[in-house]
Amino acid sequence: MTAIKHALQRDIFTPNDERLLSIVNVCKAGKKKKNCFLCATVTTERPVQVKVVKVKKSDKGDFYKRQMAWELRDLTEVDARDANKDNPEFDLHFEKVYRWVASSTAEKNSFISCIWKLNQRYLRKKLEFVNVSPQLLEESVPSGESQSVAGGDEDVLDDYQELNTREEQDIESMMEVCEYAISNAEGFAEKLSRELQVLDGANIQSIMASEKQVNLLMQLLDHALSEVDNIEGKLLSYEEMLQSVKEQMDQISQSNRLIQISKTNNDKLLDEIQFLVNYMDLSKGHIKALQEGDLSSPKGIEACINASEALSQCMNVALKPGHDKLLAVKQQQRLFTELKDTFARRLTNHLNNVFVYQFNHFSHFKMTIPQFYRSSCLSLPGHDQSNTLAQHTADLTLPKHSPLHRDLLRYAKLMEWLKNTQRDKYEGLSRTYVDYMTRLYEREIKDFFEVAKIKMAGSSKDVKGKFGLHGSSGKLTGSTSSLNKLAVTSSNSKRSQSSSLLDMGNMSASDLDVADRTRFDKIFEQVLSELEPLCLAEQDFISKFFKLQQHSTPAQGENVDDADGIVHSRPPSEHRISISEKDMVRLMMNKIFQSIEMELNSLIALGDKVDSFNSLYMLVKISHHVLTAENVDPASYLSTTLGNVLVTVKRNFDKCISGQIRQMEEVKISKKSKVGILQFVTGFEEFAKLAEAIFRNAERRGDLDKAYIKLIRAVFNNVEKVANESQKTPRDVVMMENFHHIFSTLSSLKISCLETERKDAKQKYTEHLQSYVINSLGQPLEKLNHFFEGVEARVAQGVREEEVSYQLAFNKQELRKVIKEYPGKEVKKGLDNLYKKVDKHLCDEENLLQVVWHSMQDEFIRQYKHFEGLINRCYPGSGITMEFTIQDMLEYFSSIAQSH
Amino acid sequence: MAANKNKNQSSLVLHKVIMVGSGGVGKSALTLQFMYDEFVEDYEPTKADSYRKKVVLDGEEVQIDILDTAGQEDYAAIRDNYFRSGEGFLLVFSITESESFSATSDFREQILRVKAEEDKVPLLVVGNKSDLEDRRQVSADEARAKADEWSVQYVETSAKTRANVDKVFFDLMREVRAKKMSETKEKNGKKSGNKKKSLKERCVLL
Hints:
The complex is a heterodimer.
Chain A: H1 2-13, E1 18-28, E2 36-43, E3 50-57, E4 64-71, E5 77-79, E6 89-93, E7 97-102, H2 105-123, E8 128-130, H3 134-138, H4 141-150, H5 154-159, H6 165-177, H7 185-280, H8 284-292, H9 298-315, H10 327-378, H11 385-393, H12 402-409, H13 412-421, H14 423-470, H15 474-498, H16 501-545, H17 552-561, H18 571-592, H19 594-610, H20 614-632, H21 637-666, H22 679-694, H23 701-725, H24 731-749, H25 755-777, H26 782-797, H27 812-820, H28 824-841, H29 849-874, H30 886-899
Parallel strand pairs in A: 5-8
Antiparallel strand pairs in A: 1-2, 1-7, 2-3, 3-4, 5-6, 6-7
Helix pairs in contact in A: 8-9, 8-10, 9-10, 9-13, 10-14, 11-14, 12-16, 13-14, 14-15, 14-16, 14-18, 14-19, 15-16, 16-18, 16-20, 17-18, 19-21, 20-21, 21-23, 22-23, 22-24, 23-24, 24-25, 25-29, 28-30
Chain B: H1 3-11, E1 13-21, H2 27-36, E2 48-57, E3 60-69, H3 80-85, E4 88-94, H4 98-114, E5 123-128, H5 140-149, E6 153-156, H6 165-189, H7 195-205
Parallel strand pairs in B: 1-3, 1-4, 4-5, 5-6
Antiparallel strand pairs in B: 2-3
């Protein structure tokens, strides 16, 4: 632009004495590419004229033509069209409105600004600036203002140029060169003008030369411009090419996307197909196994298990919503269902057959034995003892079903499959199983209990014999003892030789009692220990085979794992399942073993009938088994059944106790013989010994303790009752002897709950010993006793001891008379009689004669001394003494001792 | 069924043992220890008491009758009667009390007097309270010398620790049994109907 400005100044304005101040490249509004310039000029001569000149660049050649010029005076309005926006358009209002478009907003702005300034400086006339940014107008105001203040001297100031030092020096040197300058100013001036002319010429020449250069430059520029045009054209063509390439690329990418979509679709389809093929395809082998696989060989079962698992897997595949609409899937599913049905039917049939076969097999096997038992049972009554004995040695066992279970457990997986797929078939099978097993077990258990009963009956027969013995039916006694002899010969042979027949019978009977009981205990224990594994095995088998407890275990495990309650909301449902499944097991067990409880009860009843003491054994055994069973599994069928049975046994036990108590109450003693130790006292001793042995480590101690207390109370009461009723034997003796025995029993058994009773017994024994001694001793010196009792009564009434002798009934004569009645001989006879009587009263078992006699001797001496003391006090100085001395008395005692 | 038991007991062979000795030497303690496996610390003078127990003596079931007697009686003659009834005697003294040891001689003399018709009376000298070694007054040698003199066995026991308690009873029973057997043989061999026989018979009948 500056270059253009220079060119314009040089070419156009300098010749007209004008100065170019501002230039703007414009074109007429509405026309294109009409390149021209608007120039603001001032004349160099005064008065200054301000003009706006329009210069046009000629199309051809490189020069400018002055087209039109306006006086600034004529300008009325400048319209910038828009003050704020960049808008190169502007209007100038002269005689008419000229519309321009500047090549740039900046140019426009500087041009407008220049016009404003020129107006300010030279014209100061009202000129409208419309839509011109105020910034543009104000910017230069201050300078304009100052310039205006300077006034008209401005041009003078402009012209005067102060010489700077260098110019000064130049001038000075120049003047020195022309020494004559000062002297010859004229010559110097001439010289200077000459030189100036030379310089002017040179200047003009150089200007001329530079014009050529400029022209050359302009040419070059033109050339460059055309080159640029050329390049522009090329670029345009390139762009076109690129455009087409881009279009092609677009097309390619479009098709690519389509290919992608179809590929993913294909992939998905493939996946689906693969999924269906993978999961819904059942191998030929499996199909074959399901359709006709051998269900009896382990290999076949294995194959079937695998096949059934594969089948369930296939059937349980989680199909997506649309899958079931696929024909192939439908077909496959139909095939599976068919396979499932066929296989389930086959499996059910086969298992049914297995059940039947096993059942028949077992029952056949079992049938052979019971027949033997039955025959022996029939021949039992009495005649064939060897058979009975053989019977006793026969094994009391229940057949084990482990082979059956083992066989069937191979099908467990298949059962699980069946349970999960064909519930009704599964339930049908379990019903069938239960039916068969019920029959099988019922028979086995019946036989088993029959054997057990026969064994028990073997002992019961003896016991009955023994009962007969007690009932004093002499007929049976003999046979019993002989039978007993058989049973216990080995242990008793020595004694039976040395004892009388009767003794031996008694003894062996009681020994047999113990032997019977231990045998009963053994039988019962065996029954229980046979039943226990049987039940457990069956329950285990059922839960395994019918898959009835599988769920409960993980559920429980879960409960244990998440104890913090997070899972608590969930387990209940699972728990319910497990409970119902346990119920299922229990139901099946109930059905299968329905006969057990009945049989057990009847066995218990028999045991109880045979010997009520057996209840003790049964109570302990059952309790123990209940506890063990509960430890194994508290909900098991066995523990519930045993629990029920336990109630019965406990009832029997209580019955046994109350039976004993009743026996005590009903006891009758003979009026002729001495009482001795009462049957029920020794009975209690025996019971307690037995019970202690049985309950030694048992869990039911509490029951026994309660029974003890009941029994001992009955014993105490009945001893007293008998003592009161006793005629032949004095009451004191009955009490003394029996309580001594009870005390001794309790001391040796050390039953802790009966400690107070033990002390009681001792107390009663001592009391009655004392009262017996005193009562008995009243007799040998009866009158003396009466006399002195009277004396004491008087003293007690307040009569002074020394004055007793003045009483008529108790004077010295009376005393002498009484004493005379008891000479030594009489006393000795009395003591003799007393000893005999005591001997007669007392029984041998308690061996209390020596104890009693010892007490009597003591008491007698005490009485003697007491009498002597009374005589000394009440009849002092009378010189009356007893007819016998203590020494005499001791001699009597010695002689009594020697005579027995 | 309980009825036969008492008869059963009496049918066993019965050995009658008498505890003899001064007061407080531990006769009752020995008896109770033997009978009930218990030791009673408190001392309560006994008048007399009788005990019976079934024991197995060398494989044979027998019964033992123990008569526990009073140690402190005013009159020795009172004892005559039960000495008479005894078949064997445990002559007990306390090793912590020399008086009780010297008293044994008197007791023995009385026993021999009462059972004068017997050739030999089964008897054991028992030095009780052997657990109280620090209070011992009677040396084992001294006691043994006396026992040797009487040609009987001397055993030291402790009713408290149960040391030798069973031994003295069983040893005594063995002696009693041996004596009875020799008498039976004698009786069967030559029917010498003297007092011994009647006594023997009475025992068996009981």
